[in-house]
Design brief:
Length: 313
């Protein structure tokens, strides 16, 4: 039996309804919140606090996903203290990208089968014509979350299942999502003491932030497996796109990441935008994280040279 046979199950009708309801909720509500945010912006009914909440919560959201869910838990690229782990898991939960075990198992399956049969969100498995390519891009961006399949946690995330503290964060996921809405509401209320400012806090720092940050995140799975530069020859279609890397704090360097999945840095050259990698390096200097995994410069140079040679052949 292959890993794919063992690792993927077809959901029963009830579980599928629950999965689709929760996925659609986290797609549609932030979209509605964004429409309200745009209306408030256009009509001038917002304050500087709302904009700061949007920007600040965006940073917490992307940091929680990239440093916490992705580099810390999924790829085990560094170690940290319990309270830092808790902080990262709460921030990651606030992103509303699904419970921890779902996130980790799905992403590990993406790496295991990248752009081959079994990849849960490849844009490259829908045919070669331009219509099929467009359909693939759209599927990899959002509708893959509504799929009838489910990735088995026992196959792709047994280490997380064994960690009681991480399992607790998995179970607390709905509360962390709500905390991500309550926090900007509280800050908004504290700033001017009115229910209206609490409401605009939720709209900007909660819903519009989830929409904007998740659209950027999902570009990693869709666009960064279709368009962009490929400095390394991986067995997939992963690419580096600088503007996605800027918006996602380094995740848009997807070709680098697929070449060295366990590295805490996604940048392999100093000028590549990788804010999460820079933050982890700074936390390492402060002694808050340790055992940082990164490939040796010699290995990176060798892989780059191999890719250049393959490109010329
Ligand atoms: Zn990828
Ligand atoms: Zn990864």
């Amino acid at each position: 039996m292959t890993t794919l046979d063992r690792g993927v199950v077809r959901l029963d009708p009830h579980s599928l309804r629950v999965k689709r309801f929760s996925a659609l909720t986290t797609m549609v509500l932030p979209l509605l919140g964004t429409v309200v945010a745009v209306y408030l912006l256009v009509t001038g009914r917002f304050t500087a606090v709302d904009i700061w909440l949007l920007a600040g919560m965006y940073c917490v959201h992307i940091g929680g996903v990239t440093i916490g869910l992705h580099r810390y838990v999924t790829h085990r690229s560094f170690k940290t203290t319990r309270w830092m782990q808790d902080l990262l898991m709460v921030a990651g939960g606030m992103a509303a990208q699904g419970p921890l075990l779902f996130w980790v198992a799905t992403h590990r399956r993406h790496h295991r089968f990248a752009d081959h049969e079994g990849d849960p969100h490849s844009p490259n498995l829908h045919g070669a014509g331009w219509r099929q390519r467009l359909r693939g891009l759209w599927y990899a961006h959002m509708p893959w979350m509504l799929s009838e399949e489910s990735t088995r946690w026992s196959v792709f995330a047994p280490d997380v299942l064994r960690d009681r503290r991480l399992v607790a964060h998995h179970r607390l996921y709905p509360y962390w999502v709500l905390a991500g809405l309550a926090l900007p509401a509280l800050i908004g209320f504290a700033a001017s003491g009115t229910l209206w400012s609490a409401f605009t806090g939720v709209v900007f720092g909660g819903l519009a932030r989830i929409f904007a940050a998740n659209q950027a995140s999902w570009c990693v799975g869709s666009i960064c497996h279709a368009f962009g530069r490929r400095p390394f020859t991986n067995d997939d279609h992963s690419t580096n796109l600088w503007w996605v890397a800027v918006l996602t704090f380094g995740e848009g360097l997807q070709n680098n990441h697929h070449a060295f999945p366990r590295s805490y840095r996604h940048a392999v050259r100093w000028w590549e935008p990788d804010l999460s990698g820079w933050i982890i390096a700074a936390l390492g200097k402060a002694g808050l994280v340790w055992d940082l995994h990164t490939p040796s410069p010699a290995l990176v140079s060798k892989r780059l040279a191999t890719a250049e040679k393959t490109g010329k052949d």
